[in-house]
Predict the structure.
Amino acid sequence: MSYKFGLIGYPIQHSLSPWIHEQFMQKEGVDGSYSIIEIKPDNNFLKQVDQLKSQKLSGFNVTVPYKQKIMPFLDEVSEEAQGIGAVNTVLNDNGKWIGYNTDGIGYLRSLAGKFPKLLTEKDKRILLLGGGGAARGIYYALVNAGFYYVDIANRTEQSAKEIAALHTAAETNILTLQDAEQQIDAYDIIIQTTSVGMKPGQDSSIISLDKLKAGSIVSDIIYQPLETNLLKQAQKQGSSIHYGHTMLLYQAQYAFEIWTNKTVPIEDMDHQLQLILEGR
Ligand code: ATR
């Protein structure tokens, strides 16, 4: 059988997903293709979805700005995607479209890939910086996995509050970014999910890490640059750091698993992806 995968979104010409999924297919000896299906925001989305249906893709990824817009067109939505309120992966199950969200679990797998012990240390105190779509997925996955001290610091309090309401199993405090900076030594794991520090703004960082506690882990989901200003600060303080590009690999790994039932080992792709990103 030959698979037909794709990605919808805009703009997506520079997406790394085709490269990642082509590697997966090669590694697993799976026959198929992965195409970029760019849908301009001023296009009639309903018509585009009809066209997509007629293409009979085996599955497709969904990115900005369609992660929520696709939801009314799905026949089923996984509990997780429903909880997060966004879909980034669709499976065509004999004509039925089923929506999933692999971002949060992908992030968690990437973190556990680097720090395997964490999965048995659910009492770690975690601080999420940011209140956008990425923070939603990561918060949901962390709490769903059993972490119960997950605080959120964001510029806009309301979006942080909405994220805290996604899951009732955690004890979540909402902080200002100033508070986060002052109280940073209360946390074992700090996860940066905003766009602050991304190229071309790589000289900035969302907060200063001067008061970081010894032995803490600092994670940044930005991968352009690979080593953000925040991660540089953390390294100087002797903290362990976690790069953002691995989330890309693991969310794709989980999507591929949903489509093909195959879990591709990705450890050897980490370095290759770093080289691609550094060459950009
Ligand atoms: P994504 O869906 O990729 O997470 P997003 O929804 O645009 O992206 O979210 C961006 C996040 O970065 C938000 O938390 C945003 O803060 P607000 O909720 O206050 O808008 C945060 N962010 C972006 N620029 C920022 C800045 N200059 N200072 C602080 N936070 C910023």
